[in-house]
Design a protein that fits this description.
This protein is mostly helical and 187 residues long. The chain has 8 helices and 3 strands; from the N terminus they run αβαββαααααα.
Length: 187
């Protein structure tokens, strides 16, 4: 009985330790009162799923997430990752599933900021798309990842997401992972 109890305590300790090591705090703030509900929704998503998002990103990339805490502003505009002290910005009006996908997209950009040496022919989004599909699929399933790609590919104006996604998904998951690992090794 004592051995069983010690085993349970050990598992509980490991779970707590893993949680404490992977926890990243995002301080969500509404740009104005009209975004309070969306801000609360982002907070709840992050509280419920943030550690799993970070774990999926770390597992797929093989890199530890570089930040412990940062700020995010919820507003109505184009979502942006920010960097360092510059806060992330998240669009308020997205549906819940799009909020989740976009949150992983933007924290993914922040994650990649640790890779300073990059090939000239692979821009910020192509670098992100080498692994983001796998992280989405790992966490939420392939249907979610496919839907997220469709949503992002439909975005027009600021960046050609459709072409970048076609470029990334023309490669096999193994080819994408290999290309990412080549870039990581250069850093």
């Amino acid at each position: 009985m004592r051995r069983l109890w010690l085993g349970i305590v050990s598992v509980a300790f490991l779970q707590t330790t893993v949680f404490a090591q992977s926890h990243v705090k995002i301080n969500f703030t509404a740009e104005s009162g009209r975004f309070n509900a969306a801000t609360e929704e982002y907070r709840q998503i992050w509280l419920a799923e943030g550690d799993r998002m970070i774990a999926a990103i770390e597992q797929v990339t093989g890199l530890k997430y570089p930040e412990n805490e940062f700020n995010a502003i919820v507003f109505e505009g184009v979502s942006e990752s920010g960097r360092g002290k510059v806060p992330m910005k998240m669009r308020a009006s997205y549906a819940t599933e799009v909020k989740k996908a976009t949150l992983m997209h933007e924290i993914g950009h922040r994650h990649l900021s640790q890779l300073r040496k990059r090939p000239k022919d692979i821009d910020e989004h192509r670098l992100l798309f080498l692994w983001l599909y796998e992280a989405w699929a790992k966490l939420y399933g392939q249907a979610f990842a496919d839907d997220a790609v469709k949503v992002e590919s439909a975005r027009k104006g600021i960046y050609d997401y459709e072409t970048a996604w076609k470029w990334a998904l023309a490669m096999s998951p193994g080819e994408r992972a290999s290309k990412l690992q080549e870039i990581i090794k250069q850093n």
